[in-house]
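[Primary structure, fold]
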Amino acid sequence: MEEEYGAYLRWKCEQSFARYYPTPTPELFDRLNYELKVIADKGFSAYMLIVEDFLRFAGSKGIRAGARRLMASGSVDDW
């Protein structure tokens, strides 16, 4: 299952990557790949997807919430 969650997490990250990094560099892609590998190796892909779902729900209800408190600060995959 981790591979499926990891693939979906990668897809979601890549979909929003251009919005936050309009002119991405190879270094940014390397960083994203590294961070996603660490997340998958630790078995946290599903956790990251669940947190993203909570944050999306909170935002849709006008509840202020931020990923910075729940995820690694400064990570490329926060987006």
Remarks:
- DSSP finds three helices and no strands in the chain.
- The CA atoms of residues 55 and 65 lie 6 Å apart.
- The mean pLDDT is 85.
